[in-house]
């Protein structure tokens, strides 16, 4: 059974359409666009017959964006819907403009049987094409990104369901979550699953750009706009035209940039810094933040109207400690990537390591896990990633027992050297943990100079930042 919505104030047109459609169609009728939208929200319709007179666009206005804005609410609810414009004979030119703006086709009334049949066949062809595209997207989801979206976590499963639902739409998305939870990867996934996949994906880390340059980076500048502007520069919103722009750490942008971003979201227009020309852009915005943006809006640190524009479809990305079921999957992916880019062939991870991973809180989330895996991979000398290759603060009380018999092919001096290096690395890691990564205190406790400590830390890939959370 196919669902059809007829939206027209003329009851005769509704009855005429009903007479042309057989019992395979379930037909709903509304007399105005708002009522039609309300019906559309409650039930999915594959076909929408929409009266041109209800669009509020007069014949002396040729701006296609006006039509696009009228179609937008329906398309956001169901992107695959096919819209057939119902037009009086004297407004065929306007109906053609509506088709250019995104409608499937148009019908002039009173209807003729052969014309109605042709239009219906054309609409069904478009519906089949959309279904095939949806099938291909689902196939892509199941195969090409299967490793990325594998999860054993019910919480993360819901996140992927949300992404799959919203990606094909035009809705603005706000990714909420702690640093290191993989928001950038999810933004790329959204872009790949959207109708904009063939267009650019531009990622901007707003917090990493000096405050005075964020506006220029996003919107570009004209030559001579400020000191050092020796030539015109295109902004990221121009470069991303037709595609997706990912704005990470959106809560760091200044008040002036917030105003310009609000203009882009509301009107799809902006001006370069120092410019007077208004530039139109068609960009899907995905933003991310590791702070509670609503609290910033409530306290006046962030524009409330911009917050609501960004928060159209919020997705909460869980921290790694709330999805420990996925740690073995992530470890497997990281290990496969490390083997691909390095000469070693480490086949597995010791069970004691995975046990310790499940008990560690992972304040740095997936990014910390990836970094820890890479450092251990570099240090490891056996085919298995052992507990001894990981920082003591992660392993905790896990036993660092030998994984296999000693390698008798080595000289005793080489076995001694390796054992000494491993003991040295574990000792330094523990002392760094005790002193919260503070170099001067660690060096003093170890009885060496800070210069010697820096050299040893570099040799063993130890980073003071990893030990700051252990300070008392």
Automatic annotation (TrEMBL):
List each copy of the Sigma-54 factor interaction domain by range: 149-378
Response regulatory domain: residues covered:
3-124
- SUPFAM superfamilies, from UniProt? CheY-like, Homeodomain-like, P-loop containing nucleoside triphosphate hydrolases
Q: Kindly state which keywords UniProt assigns to this record, in alphabetical order.
A: ATP-binding, DNA-binding, Nucleotide-binding, Phosphoprotein, Transcription, Transcription regulation
The protein's GO terms of the molecular function aspect are:
ATP binding; DNA binding
InterPro entries the record matches = AAA+_ATPase, AAA_lid_NorR, CheY-like_superfamily, Homeodomain-like_sf, P-loop_NTPase, Sig_transdc_resp-reg_receiver, Sigma_54_int, Sigma_54_int_dom_ATP-bd_1
Q: Name one Pfam family in it.
A: AAA_lid_14
Protein's GO biological process: phosphorelay signal transduction system; regulation of DNA-templated transcription
Asked whether the UniProt record includes Transmembrane helix among its keywords, one would answer no
Q: Which residues carry this modification: 4-aspartylphosphate?
A: 51
Question: Per its record, how is this protein called by name?
Answer: Sigma-54-dependent Fis family transcriptional regulator
The source organism is: Desulfoglaeba alkanexedens ALDC
**Organism taxonomic ancestry:** Bacteria, Pseudomonadati, Thermodesulfobacteriota, Syntrophobacteria, Syntrophobacterales
């Amino acid at each position: 059974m196919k669902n059809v919505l007829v939206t027209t104030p003329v009851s005769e047109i509704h009855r005429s359409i009903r007479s042309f459609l057989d019992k395979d169609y379930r037909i709903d009728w509304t007399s105005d666009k708002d009522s039609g939208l309300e019906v559309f929200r409650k039930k999915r319709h594959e076909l929408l017959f929409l009266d041109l007179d209800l669009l509020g666009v007069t014949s002396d206005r040729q701006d296609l964006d006006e039509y696009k804005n009228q179609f937008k609410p329906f398309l956001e609810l169901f992107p695959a819907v096919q819209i057939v414009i119902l037009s009086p004979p004297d407004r065929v030119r306007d109906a053609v403009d509506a088709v250019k703006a995104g409608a499937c086709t148009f019908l002039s009334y009173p209807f003729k049987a052969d014309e109605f049949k042709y239009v219906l066949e054309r609409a069904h062809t478009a519906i089949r094409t959309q279904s095939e595209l949806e099938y291909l997207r689902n196939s892509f989801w199941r195969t090409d990104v299967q490793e990325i979206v594998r999860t054993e976590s019910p919480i993360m499963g819901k996140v992927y369901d949300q992404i799959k639902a919203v990606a094909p739409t035009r809705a603005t998305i706000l990714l909420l979550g702690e640093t290191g939870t993989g928001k950038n990867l999810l933004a790329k996934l959204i872009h790949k699953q959207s109708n904009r996949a063939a267009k650019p994906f531009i990622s901007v880390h707003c917090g990493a750009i000096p405050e005075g340059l964020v506006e220029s980076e996003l919107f570009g500048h004209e030559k001579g706009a400020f000191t050092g502007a020796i030539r015109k520069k295109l902004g990221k919103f121009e470069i991303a035209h037709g595609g997706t722009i990912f704005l990470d750490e959106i809560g760091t942008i200044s008040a002036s940039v917030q105003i310009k971003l609000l203009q882009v979201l509301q009107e799809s227009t902006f001006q370069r810094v120092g410019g007077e020309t208004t530039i139109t852009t068609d960009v899907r915005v995905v933003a991310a933040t590791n702070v509670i943006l609503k609290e910033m809006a409530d306290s006046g640190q962030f524009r409330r109207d911009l917050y609501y524009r960004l928060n159209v479809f919020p997705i909460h990305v869980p921290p790694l400690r709330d999805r420990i079921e996925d740690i073995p999957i992530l470890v497997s992916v990281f290990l496969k990537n490390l083997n691909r880019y390095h000469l070693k062939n480490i086949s597995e991870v010791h069970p004691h390591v995975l046990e310790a991973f499940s008990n560690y809180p992972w304040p740095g989330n997936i990014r910390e896990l990836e970094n820890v895996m890479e450092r251990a991979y570099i240090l490891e000398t056996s085919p298995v990633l052992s507990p001894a290759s990981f920082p003591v603060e992660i392993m905790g009380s896990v036993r660092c027992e030998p994984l296999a018999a000693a390698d008798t092919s080595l000289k005793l001096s080489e076995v001694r050297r390796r054992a000494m290096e491993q003991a040295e690395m574990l000792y330094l890691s523990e002392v760094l943990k005790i002193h919260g990564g503070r170099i001067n205190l660690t060096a003093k406790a170890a009885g060496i100079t800070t210069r010697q400590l820096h050299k040893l830390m570099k040799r063993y890939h130890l980073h003071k930042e990893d030990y700051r959370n252990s300070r008392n």
